[in-house]
Write a structure and sequence with these properties.
Low-confidence stretches of chain A: none
Oligomer: heterodimer
Number of strands of chain B: 0
Mean pLDDT of chain A: 87
Shape of chain A: globular
Largest sheet of chain B: none
Order of helices and strands of chain B: HHHHHHHHHHH
Shape of chain B: globular
Distance between the termini of chain B: 24 Å
Largest sheet of chain A: 7 strands, mixed
Helix content of chain A: 25-40%
Helix content of chain B: over 70%
Structural class of chain B: mainly alpha
Radius of gyration of chain A: 16 Å
Number of strands of chain A: 7
Structural class of chain A: alpha/beta
Mean pLDDT of chain B: 92
Order of helices and strands of chain A: HEEHEHHEHEHEHEH
Number of helices of chain A: 8
Low-confidence stretches of chain B: none
Strand content of chain B: under 5%
Radius of gyration of chain B: 20 Å
Strand order of the largest sheet of chain A: 1-7-6-2-5-3-4
Strand content of chain A: 15-25%
C-alpha cells in the first residue's frame, strides 16, 4: 500500500511539479547507477534535492532508492516520520555518532540488499549554492563496502528555487551533472579529497549565476 | 479529406507538414550518404521541429482557450529561462514570484481582447509595482541593475510574446481563427531558417560581428526576400490582408525577426552563454527558438491591428 502511495505521489505530484517549476536538465545521465548496490553522493542545497534525484530514475526503481537522512530532523513528528520513512523512503541515521552501535549499520544492510543509497555529505542544506566541506561518514561507508561504486552528482539551481528557511518555491531552471563512479581508495583522507575534487570538477561544467 | 483541407488554416498546416517531411527526407539522405557532424546536427534539429510543430499545431487547432494557455506556458518557460540565466539578488526572490504571477492576467487580457489592460498591465502596472516591491525589500546595492534586468525580462518574455495570444484573439474575432497567428509564427520561423540557409550558402559580409558573427547581409537579404514571397502567397488565405499588404507584413516580420534575434544574442553574449538552455535538442532553449518572435510578434500585431483592426469578418 505505501509502495503504491509512493509511486502515485511521485507520478502525479512530484514529477509534474518538478518538470514545470525546475525542468531539470541532466548531463551524462548514462553515468547514473543502473543497478544497486551503489552510493550516490550529491551536494545539498534544498529539500527539492532528494525529490529531484528520486525523479531522475524510473518509477520501478523507487523501492531500491534510499535517501540517507538525519533521524533527529526528519523523525520529529509522527506524520513527518511516516512521510519520510514511507513516501520518501529514507534510512534514518543518528547524527553525531556517539560510540557503541554502528551508526552506518542500516546503510550497510541496505547496500547488502542491493539498494542505491543517496547521501548528502554536506550534512545540512547550508548556505544555498555554496559547496561546504563534506562529512567523513561517506568514507567510512565506502570502507565498509569497498566493492560498491560511489557516483558523484552535482546539483545546481535547486537552492535558488527553494533555499533553506523558505517555503516559497520560485521557479528556476536547474542543472544536474553526473560524474564517473569510483570506489574506496584505501584510506579516508585520500577518498574525501578525491570526492571533493570530483564534485568541484562537476561544478565547473555548469554555467552558474550565483546570487549577488 | 476534402473537408479537412476546406479551411485555409488546415491547408496551410498541411503545407507546413509537407515542408517538414521534405526536410526530414533531406536529413535522412544526408545522414545516409554523408554522415558527420553536420548530418547529425540537422537530424537533431529536424526531430525537434517535428515536436515543436506537432505541439504548436495541436494547440492552435484545439480551441482558443487551449491555444492561449499553451502560449502562456511558452511565456512562462521563456521567463524562467531568462531569470535562471541573469544575475539576481537573494533579496528579490519573492519579487521574482510576483513577476511570474504577472503572466496569467496578461494572457487573460489577450484572450478577452481587452486591448487597454493588455497594453498597460506590464509596462505600467508591473513596471511600477515591481520596483516598489524591490524597494520594500530594503536592499539598495545593485537596485537599479535588478530593476532593469527584471523589467527588460518581463518586456521580452511576457509582454512581447503575449502578442501572439492577442493575435489569436484578433483572428478569432474576425473569422480568421488562428490564421494570423499561424501566419506570424510560420513566417518568423521560416525567415530564421531561410536566413540561416542563405547565410550558409552565400554569406560573406557580416552585419554586427561583435554580437552575432554568423549574421551576414547575404543571409539577411536572402531571408528577407524569401519571407516576402512566402508572405505574399500565404497572407491572403490566412488574414484580412491582400497580396501587397501581406508582402509588406512579410518584410516587417523579416526585419523585426532579425532584430529580435540579435537582441537576444547580445543578451546571451553579455551573460557568457551560447544557448539559453538545453530544452530543445539542436536548438538550445525556448528563448533561442522564440528570439525572433519577441520582436516580430508585437510589431506585426500592431501593424495588422492598426490597418485591419476595423476590418469586418469575411
Amino acid at each position: 500500500m505505501t509502495g503504491f502511495l509512493r509511486c502515485a505521489f511521485f507520478l502525479l505530484i512530484v514529477r509534474p511539479l518538478l518538470t514545470l517549476m525546475l525542468g531539470a536538465h541532466v548531463r551524462r545521465r548514462d553515468l547514473l547507477p543502473a543497478t544497486g548496490p551503489a552510493i550516490i553522493v550529491a551536494n545539498h542545497n534544498s529539500h527539492l534535492d532528494t525529490l529531484t534525484i528520486l525523479s531522475m530514475f524510473r518509477l520501478g526503481d523507487l523501492p531500491r532508492l534510499r535517501p540517507v537522512a538525519a533521524a533527529d530532523y526528519f523523525l520529529r513528528s509522527r506524520l513527518g516520520a511516516w512521510f519520510a520513512l514511507n513516501i520518501i523512503g529514507i534510512i534514518p541515521i543518528v547524527r553525531g555518532g556517539r560510540g557503541g552501535a554502528n551508526v552506518l549499520g542500516p546503510c550497510e544492510e541496505a547496500l547488502d540488499r542491493g539498494d542505491i543509497l543517496i547521501l548528502f555529505p554536506e550534512g545540512s542544506r547550508g548556505e544555498p549554492e555554496v559547496l561546504a566541506d563534506f562529512k567523513r561518514g561517506v568514507a567510512h561507508l565506502a570502507r565498509a563496502r569497498p566493492e560498491v561504486p560511489v557516483h558523484p552528482l552535482f546539483l545546481y539551481g535547486l537552492g535558488k528555487a527553494l533555499p533553506k528557511d523558505s517555503f516559497l518555491l520560485v521557479p528556476f531552471n536547474c542543472d544536474i551533472v553526473a560524474g564517473e563512479a569510483f570506489r574506496w581508495t584505501g584510506e579516508v583522507d585520500g577518498f574525501m579529497a578525491l570526492l571533493q575534487a570530483r564534485m568541484a570538477g562537476l561544478a565547473t561544467q555548469i554555467h552558474r549565476s550565483p546570487w549577488e | 479529406m476534402s473537408s479537412f483541407l476546406a479551411t485555409p488554416l488546415h491547408a496551410a498546416i498541411a503545407i507546413i507538414y509537407g515542408l517538414l517531411i521534405l526536410a526530414t527526407v533531406i536529413a535522412l539522405l544526408l545522414r545516409r550518404f554523408s554522415p558527420g557532424e553536420v548530418a547529425t546536427e540537422l537530424w537533431k534539429r529536424t526531430t525537434s521541429w517535428w515536436w515543436m510543430i506537432g505541439v504548436f499545431t495541436f494547440a492552435i487547432l484545439t480551441s482558443p482557450v487551449v491555444s492561449t494557455v499553451f502560449l502562456g506556458l511558452i511565456s512562462f518557460l521563456a521567463l524562467k529561462e531568462y531569470l535562471s540565466l541573469v544575475p539576481t539578488r537573494r533579496a528579490d526572490r519573492s519579487v521574482l514570484l510576483w513577476a511570474y504571477l504577472a503572466i496569467p492576467p496578461q494572457f487573460y487580457f489577450a484572450h478577452t481582447e481587452n486591448f487597454g489592460f493588455f497594453m498597460v498591465w506590464i509596462p505600467v502596472w508591473m513596471f511600477l509595482f515591481l520596483p516598489a516591491r524591490i524597494t520594500l525589500g530594503g536592499v539598495t546595492e545593485g537596485y537599479l541593475r535588478a530593476v532593469g534586468i527584471l523589467s527588460w525580462g518581463l518586456m521580452m518574455t511576457v509582454f512581447a510574446l503575449s502578442h501572439t495570444a492577442m493575435l489569436l484573439a484578433f483572428g478569432t474575432a474576425r473569422g480568421y481563427g488562428a490564421g494570423p497567428l499561424l501566419f506570424l509564427v510560420a513566417l518568423t520561423q521560416f525567415n530564421d531558417v531561410a536566413q540561416f540557409t542563405w547565410g550558409k550558402l552565400f554569406g560573406r559580409h557580416k552585419i554586427v560581428p561583435t554580437v552575432s558573427p554568423k549574421k551576414t547581409w547575404e543571409g539577411f537579404l536572402g531571408g528577407f526576400f524569401s519571407t516576402v514571397m512566402a508572405a505574399a502567397f500565404a497572407g491572403p488565405f490566412l488574414s484580412p490582408m491582400d497580396m501587397r499588404w501581406s508582402a509588406l507584413s512579410g518584410a516587417i516580420i523579416a526585419i523585426a525577426g532579425f532584430l529580435g534575434d540579435i537582441t537576444l544574442s547580445a543578451t546571451k553574449r553579455d551573460l557568457g552563454v551560447k544557448d539559453a538552455s538545453n530544452l530543445i535538442p539542436g536548438h538550445g532553449g525556448i528563448l533561442d527558438r522564440v528570439d525572433s518572435l519577441i520582436y516580430a510578434a508585437p510589431v506585426f500585431f500592431h501593424f495588422i491591428n492598426y490597418f485591419f483592426g476595423g476590418h469586418p469578418a469575411p
